[in-house]
Design a protein that fits this description.
The complex is a heterodimer of chains A (240) and B (305). Chain A has 240 residues and is an alpha/beta fold. Chain A has four helices and 15 strands. A seven-stranded antiparallel sheet of chain A has the order 4-3-7-1-2-6-5. Chain A has a six-stranded mixed sheet with strand order 10-9-8-11-12-15, with helices on both faces. By secondary structure, chain B is an alpha/beta fold. Chain B has a single domain, classed as TIM Barrel (Alpha-Beta Barrel), CATH 3.20.20. Helix content of chain B is 33%, strand content 24%. In chain B, the strands form four sheets. In chain B, strands 3-4-7-8-11-12-15-16 form an eight-stranded parallel beta barrel, surrounded by five helices. In chain B, strand 15, helix 6 and strand 16 form a beta-alpha-beta unit. The relative contact order of chain B is 0.16. The interface between A and B is medium-sized, with 26 and 31 residues. Bound molecules: flavin-adenine dinucleotide and flavin mononucleotide. The site of flavin-adenine dinucleotide has 22 residues of chain A, from strand 4, strand 6 and helix 1.
């Protein structure tokens, strides 16, 4: 199955402050939670990567926040118009043998977690999704609990002790993923985090988006686009 | 169907469209997008004697019409390439050229010996690497150093030897001539241009955040520089020239052929459009047919009239 596609826009709607949801028809048969698509932006050298936030039949949704020229272009797309995208790219969250999952989303990082929640439900894996947003207007719906203002991590320790998950999944700003990984490690719980890094090729050839992993006594570089975006929190060499 | 084959002084390619080093990995990833075996050749990511981890920090910066990279030659090392990747390329019948990098003379020679021993048909030597012994100046900026490096490699490597020039020099002709005199079979040009990306962001609370990335500029914006260099090189030497720099469509390829390139490599555009090499290949065939020409050589002649 080739990975370059044309998508036909079905819907492109505002769902929160500066935040939109784009849904398009694709020819894709399967997307795993955590995978992403990379969209071509006219006159830009680099494609823009976005996590899949929902997948129904062959319709892909992404949730994106306005940042610069690329997201501005995407927000201008109308129903029936076409986009050029490649995907699904990257690895995915591992849900094998999991029984009880705590899902933590911060800001627009909630996008892949919504699809993950759906997949977990389908596989009868118990789960609880907590998400954090800066203000009321930024809330992206779909969580079991919201933290508004402050940090999604403020009450996380209590929640972990009470919920007793066997795995924590997360996506959001670097600092959130880093702190959450530390907290979970101390409690002996596995974490899987979806990372973001500026990428050029999106397919694993240019080594532009690497992060450092530690496996045993060895450290190695892994590309966020191909080896990731999902990594075990305990394997990442976190920077300050 | 039009014949696209190219004869570079005895080294035969089935098409003039090659992928540029560092933008195609070791090629397996591109099978999700194109039929890689149709390419004239895949040029591998630069390989060094020992694996390299590359640079820390941000490695990519997007610019108008291009990008800056400071990957730092992260690669699996030539031995791993020979053990793991070479069998795949051979099995799939993919033609390839091995791009070599080094930080001193000995590294280049050692890697060339390994290439020779393993029957690698062609190597492209990346001389844009800093020469650690000589104040980290790039090997490819001094004609005397380049002559010595090229002739030492020629002594140990019996296949087709391509020297890939850096554009970060004032007198590109003298370097092309040095490589030719030392026995290079072919020149490829250009590698990336030295560039600095600066991004300044003024936050809502009036703070200024500055990000800078210093590295090699590539992509559509460098094409005029590359065309100029290829033309100058071609006029200075007799051996074949492979043109590289900013190619993003068929017409760009025609421009390079018209100023004397015998073949071309496509780099950064693979990131934007991963199927670009196949698309251009097909469009070239169509064009040759449409012009009622027999082959690429006839097209080249027309373009240079
Ligand atoms: C695997 C992955 C999944 C992502 N999923 C989502 C998502 O679901 N929703 C969402 O809103 N955003 C997501 N992002 C971030 C998103 O790609 C950027 O916000 C977007 O590329 C910005 O483009 P722009 O042109 O509007 O902004 P600009 O700031 O103008 O972009 C300039 C350059 O920086 C890159 N860039 C900017 N911000 C980021 C970032 N945070 N991460 C990586 N590259 C960046 C752009 O791709 C572009 O090359 C994801 C990033 C990655 C790596
Ligand atoms: C991410 C990246 C990595 C590169 N790595 C190498 C390399 O390992 N060896 C080399 O000789 N050139 C390398 N190059 C240079 C390209 O092969 C090419 O010469 C240059 O990018 C100009 O062509 P383009 O504008 O088509 O990209 C790299 C370029 C990029 C963008």
């Amino acid at each position: 199955m080739k990975k370059n596609h044309q998508g036909i826009i079905k819907e492109n709607i505002k769902i929160a402050k500066d935040t939109f949801k784009l849904t398009f028809d694709s020819n894709i048969k399967e997307v795993k939670a955590g995978q992403f698509v990379s969209i071509l932006i006219p006159d830009k050298t680099l494609r823009r990567p976005f996590s899949v936030s929902d997948f129904v039949e062959d319709k892909i949704s992404i949730i994106y926040k306005l940042k610069g020229d690329g997201t501005k272009y995407i927000s201008s797309l109308k129903e029936g118009e076409k986009i050029d995208f490649i995907g699904p790219m990257g690895n995915s969250f591992n849900i094998e043998n999991k029984k009880r999952a705590l899902i933590v989303g911060a800001g627009v990082g909630i996008a892949p977690m919504l699809y993950l929640k759906k997949v977990l439900n389908k596989n009868n894996i118990e789960n609880f999704l907590i998400s954090g947003f800066k203000e009321e207007k930024e809330i992206i719906k779909g969580s079991d609990k919201y933290v508004i203002g402050g940090s999604v991590l403020d009450s996380i320790e209590g929640l972990i002790d009470e919920y007793k998950p066997d795995v924590i999944y997360s996506c959001g700003p670097y600092i959130v993923l880093k702190l959450l990984s530390h907290i979970a490690k101390e409690k002996g719980i596995e974490t899987q985090v979806a990372m973001e890094k500026l990428m050029a090729c999106s397919i694993g050839v240019c080594r532009g988006c690497v992060i450092e992993l530690k496996r045993g006594n060895e450290t190695l570089n892994a590309s966020v686009c191909k080896d990731g975006p999902v990594f075990k929190g305990s394997e990442i060499v976190w920077q300050i | 169907m039009a014949d696209l084959s190219v004869d570079l002084n005895g080294f035969k390619l089935k098409s003039p469209i090659l992928s540029a080093s560092g933008t195609f990995g070791y090629c397996d990833e591109f099978e999700d997008f194109i039929n890689v075996s149709k390419l004239g050749s895949v040029v591998t990511k630069a390989l060094s004697i020992n694996p390299k981890k590359g640079n820390e920090g941000n490695r990519i910066f997007e610019t108008n019409g291009g990008m800056i990279n400071r990957i730092g030659l992260e690669n699996i090392g030539i031995k791993e390439f020979i053990n793991k990747k070479l069998p795949i390329l051979k099995e799939k019948n993919i033609d390839f050229i091995v791009n070599l990098a080094g930080s001193n003379f000995e590294d280049y020679i050692e890697a060339s010996k390994i290439a020779n021993k393993n029957g690698i048909k062609a190597i492209e030597v990346n001389v844009s690497c800093p020469n650690v012994k000589e104040g980290c100046l790039e090997f490819g900026t001094n004609p005397k150093t380049l002559y010595e490096l090229t002739s030492s490699i020629k002594d140990v490597y019996k296949g087709f030897l391509i020297i890939k020039l850096t554009p970060n020099v004032s007198d590109i002709e003298s370097l092309a001539i040095a490589a030719q005199s030392a026995g290079a079979d072919c020149i490829s040009a250009i590698n990336t241009l030295k560039g600095l990306g600066v991004k300044i962001e003024i936050t809502e609370d009036k703070k200024i955040i500055k990000q800078t990335v210093s590295g090699g500029l590539s992509g559509r914006c460098i094409k005029p520089v590359a065309l100029s260099m290829v033309k100058r090189i071609k006029e200075a030497i007799k051996i074949p020239v492979i043109g590289i720099g900013g190619i993003s469509n068929r017409d760009d390829v025609l421009e390079f052929l018209s100023v004397g390139a015998d073949a071309v490599e496509i780099g950064t555009e693979n990131f934007t459009n991963p199927n670009i090499t196949e698309k251009i290949t097909n469009e070239l065939i169509e064009l040759i047919d449409k012009l009622n020409l027999k082959n690429l050589d006839e097209l080249k002649r027309k373009l240079r009239e």
